[in-house]
Automatic annotation (TrEMBL), chain A:
Pathway: Amino-acid biosynthesis; L-leucine biosynthesis; L-leucine from 3-methyl-2-oxobutanoate: step 2/4. Catalyzes the isomerization between 2-isopropylmalate and 3-isopropylmalate, via the formation of 2-isopropylmaleate. This is 3-isopropylmalate dehydratase small subunit. Residues 29-101 form the Aconitase A/isopropylmalate dehydratase small subunit swivel domain. Heterodimer of LeuC and LeuD. Belongs to the LeuD family. LeuD type 2 subfamily. Its EC number is 4.2.1.33. PANTHER family: 3-ISOPROPYLMALATE DEHYDRATASE SMALL SUBUNIT 1, 3-ISOPROPYLMALATE DEHYDRATASE SMALL SUBUNIT 2-RELATED-RELATED. Pfam families: Aconitase_C. The gene is leuD.
Length: 165, 426
């Protein structure tokens, strides 16, 4: 996983919970089928419009609710570049880092608009809005997770730790 | 600032082999119980687990419960269930349960949950185990791969919010009402990264069944876990489940540090209802009374225990549910199902017009057995009312106590249970 991510923004509001990202009724289906229904409760066009590398920018408490990693699986299936939010729910944040889905918190995401081109620097804790020519302060990746993110997530990190190539 | 430790700090100090830790520390911990269920367990874990060697750290500490796909409603669910069963056999797991009920209740009934233990599970409501004084929290499937292989993971020691409920809980008001009021005040992200520690005389008065309601719903305020200090009721409960080992009566030190303390007087509380589509959208029942519903759901790991079914039976005895609705009863475990049957509770409920389903995660998570369609409204005793949670994203879910749910079944509209219960008292 790269520490620098650049992409086009899709905006969402507060409390985008795991039942919205990954509805329970589709969870036993293959990932590509589940991904067709990602976010559909609030945005029926999501699966159709999202492009590889796009960045989701949302408000407070992104990913609240379930521990279901199908939420990360469907977002990764759509090749989301990163998620920027005012805040994340705890389990969602942790799962994202574990599977190599970049997540960044910043104080007020309302300054970013849909369609903006933004660049995220995970190590420096910066969010650069190229459309507006403004730089925002984001959270830096916690020190003890840098190595894991560098390797691409928990599985490669464990492989390294356990000496499995 | 106190120098003592909270329950969370003590349990995580022990799990990380240290004398003491404090909130904010990052610690590597040894896991006492790794719990998986069918939908987020072996099916998702197996690939990575095999790629990394495929050897369990300690099969005695791994518990698998098939509960989300039981009974399977689709061939895909049947395949997941079979995969889970086969995997558990291949790994020669001593603790695999299926068709016994939701994992959180099953691991409590089988004595896996004990005070002072560190329990990680692939489900956000794993925090229910905190009602017995275990530090228990939800993790994802990838993180579970690491736990299965090494028995370890890293955790940030959480700060603790102390929630004190004193006073006598009024007739018709239950643990569910206490926890809904608490979540309303904290907000649905108000305890993110933190522990909620429930204490006070109203909490110690609660039965084991009711304490589990509080800890189950801690995550609905964003919390990492919800803890209640173990006492004689916990010891008695564990002994009744055949646990003979010494029990770690972990408690917070009197001079422990809390980030926040909330004080409540339970005697002033009235029944509470969480309205769509967030668990902190809580109002007194009087504010939503009369809202017409299509379905009533009495059960789940939150509120499907024997005391819940007894209360519902007390309200529904000799009455009929509204013709306009269906009322689904889902005991929190097969064990509770059988107990309710022995006590005649299932007769009372079915004579009133309820349908009794088997113990499973079923419609609570929108998986099987009673999901809702577009435009339908449910009054449920479960724990989450997000958009689409119980089926259609165009449905609505209200949450309340089993008593409020039973009263709603009679009227076909959200109802205050106290008018039905007061008659019994007079």
């Amino acid at each position: 996983m790269s520490f620098i991510i650049r992409g086009r923004v899709w905006k969402y509001g507060d409390n985008i919970n795991t039942d919205i990202i990954s509805p329970g009724q589709y969870m036993s289906q293959p990932v590509d089928k589940q991904a067709e229904h990602a976010m559909e409760a609030i945005d029926p066009d999501f699966a159709g419009k999202i492009q590889a590398g796009d960045i989701i920018v949302a408000g407070n408490n992104f990913g609240s609710g379930s521990s279901r990693e199908t939420a990360q699986m469907v977002l990764k299936h759509h090749q989301i570049g990163a998620i920027v939010a005012n805040s994340f729910a705890r389990i969602f944040y942790r799962n994202s880092i574990n599977v190599g889905l970049p997540v960044v918190e910043m104080v007020d995401t309302s300054v970013i608009e849909e369609g903006d081109e933004v660049e995220i620097d995970l190590l420096a804790g910066k969010v650069i809005n190229h459309t507006k020519g403004v730089e925002y302060k984001g959270t830096k990746l916690p020190e003890h997770l840098i190595e894991m993110v560098k390797l691409g997530g928990l599985e490669p990190y464990l492989a390294n730790k356990l000496g499995i190539s | 600032m106190g120098m003592g430790m909270t329950m969370s700090e003590k349990i995580l100090a022990k799990a990380s082999g240290q004398e003491s830790v404090k909130a904010g520390d990052i610690v590597w911990v040894n896991v006492d119980i790794a719990m998986m269920h069918d939908l987020l367990g072996p099916w998702l874990v197996d690939g990575g687990f095999r790629r990394l060697g495929g050897k369990l750290f300690d099969k005695e500490k791994v518990v698998v419960v098939s509960d989300h796909c039981t009974p399977p409603a689709t061939v895909q669910q049947a395949d997941i269930l079979k995969f889970t069963r086969d995997w558990s056999r291949q790994q020669d797991l001593p603790y695999y349960y299926e068709f016994e009920g939701p994992c959180h209740q099953v691991i409590v009934e089988h004595g896996h949950v004990r005070p002072g233990r560190l329990i990680l599970g692939t489900d956000s409501h794993t925090c229910m185990a905190g009602g017995l004084g275990a530090f228990a929290t939800g993790i994802g499937s990838t993180e579970m791969i690491g736990v299965l292989l090494t028995g370890e993971t890293w955790l940030k020691v959480p700060e603790t919010i102390k929630v004190v409920w004193d006073g006598k809980i009024p007739h018709g008001v239950y643990a569910k009402d206490l926890v809904l009021k608490t979540i309303k005040d904290l907000g649905h992200a108000g305890a993110t990264y933190q522990t909620i520690e429930f204490s006070g005389s109203a909490i110690t008065d609660l039965s084991m069944d009711e304490r589990l309601v509080l800890s189950n719903m801690a995550v609905e305020a964003g919390a990492k876990t919800g803890l209640i200090e173990p006492d004689e009721k916990v010891v008695e409960f564990l002994r009744s489940k055949g646990v003979t080992d010494e029990i770690d009566m972990v408690s917070s030190d009197p001079d422990a540090s809390y980030i926040r303390t909330l004080h409540y007087n339970a005697s002033e509380l009235e029944p509470q209802v969480a309205c769509p589509h967030e668990v902190d959208n809580v109002h007194p029942v009087s504010a939503v009374e009369g809202k017409a519903v299509d379905q009533v759901y009495l059960g789940s790991c939150t509120n499907g225990r024997i005391s819940d079914l007894r209360i519902a039976a007390q309200i529904l005895k000799g009455k009929k549910i509204s013709k306009n609705i269906r009322c689904l009863v889902v005991p929190a475990s097969q064990h509770i199902w059988m107990q309710a049957n022995k006590e005649g509770i299932l007769d009372i409920l079915t004579e009133a017009g309820c349908i009794v389903n088997m113990a499973s995660c079923g419609a609570c998570g929108g998986f099987t057995s009673g999901v809702i369609g577009a435009g339908e409204v449910v009054m449920s005793s479960s724990n989450r009312n997000f958009r689409g949670r119980m089926g259609s994203a165009k449905g609505e879910v209200y949450l309340g106590s089993p008593a409020s749910v039973a009263a709603t079944a009679i009227e076909g509209k959200i109802a205050d249970p106290r008018k039905y219960l007061l008659k019994e008292v007079m």
